[in-house]
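agent: user wants the structure for Rab-GTPase-TBC domain-domain-containing protein from Microdochium bolleyi. delegating to structure tool.
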Amino acid sequence: MPPTNPPSAGFGPYLAHPSSSHIFAASTTELNPPPSPRTQRTIRKLQSAHNLGAAARFGNAPSLISQQRLHNLHERPPSPPRPPVNRSPQRRRADSDARPPQLSASVHGTPAMAPRRPGPKSTSAAADEMSLERLIRDGPPAGDVDGALESVRLKVLDQGIKSDSDGMSSTRIYVWLILLDAPVVNTDDYIALIHRGPSPAYSKIRNDTFRTLTTNPLFHRRVSEASLIRLLNAVAWMLHDAKEKSRPSSSRRSIGASAGVQTSLDDISHIAVTTSPSASRGRARAMTATTDGSDANTSEPGTYVQGMNVLAAPFLYAARSEVEAFVAFHRLLTKDCPGYIRGAMDGVHKGLALVDKVLAIVDPKLSLYLTSKGLSAEIYAFPSVLTLCACTPPLPEVLRLWDFLFAYGPHLNVLCIVAQLIIMRNDLLGSPNPNKLLRSFPPLQAEPIKRTALAIIKMMPDDVYAEITTHAL
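agent: tool returned. relaying tokens verbatim.
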């Protein structure tokens, strides 16, 4: 289990469980008087993060950002109606790529427009004067959610998120949840998913978790294998449920049959767990890190793929509870990178093809040299694409790189991989066998990679950049 701060009296009903509470769940509970000034600051931070970001539950309710905008709209005189514009429908991504009024950090474009790229946009002057920590704590000044979100992105890009030498920060997880527009999830819903026992992907999960970041002592001091198993198993249930719900009703199976559970496909909060012996055994296996086998069925496509364990690891490391890590990880998979876990991972293969294409544009000499040695991105960059570079240590640098990716879109990971190749350029060109260097990338350095990636963006033709922004969908 990842260690959490000592529970405060005001959050007793949520922090009683070892997985702790999601930061946004506290907004629906009447808080008891805090026992200390430290707790008061924590509560203010949680409440302001609640106001600034996060979507509503997994249903169709509007996000909290949308609710804030609607509230502000009611306080302003209505603007004159605009003439209708015909636009092709387009899938929407996390809020880094959404297109609400003036939320200008998007790098997605409509089919009629060139995709927008990271850069200075309209911000809130009041938010610009505030530190990132204060902005997260106090929320958007004057209710300017759009300007405050853009200010957050620019502060992440220019100043970064304050953290210690181990990459730990009291602010980072809140910033991630806001930038991902993460849904509100009650702790009880997460616990209910755990109590369903092994998912159909449980056997594959157990075969991967013990190998997660094995050489990283920072990760293993903070995150237990049991915690990783629980999170991946809960996400696998969510993905499995969504797949079952999308099937014709005549072909649906009872999704809880293997664990002795009866469930509703409409809302995960309405889960009734039976008391059968098989269900009890399943819960015990899901909640502890043991070496027992699994009674669960073989994993179904689209519920778990090898490598998801590494992609989940930074969330558990940075989060203050499993629920926070769960909701952020699920949001990333389902809204930003669904193509990475769908079918034959077609999104990953598109990303690999784009690594080759981008490298040929920005450095033809290096591209031709690697091609002459039989080295394509499919050979050396598969883990880096799938895990958003989380497979390359050190972990604190991964967290800093993810700050940038969540601010402006995880699809920019393609450019970050090319940036690493550019940084290695002289060594690669000077090696008769560059494959040895590419088997294990040099230690990650977030700042040089970000600077190089931003320079690469300016060199991208609009059509190639449009492919980059949509490759993971």
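agent: one observation worth passing along. The mean pLDDT is 74.
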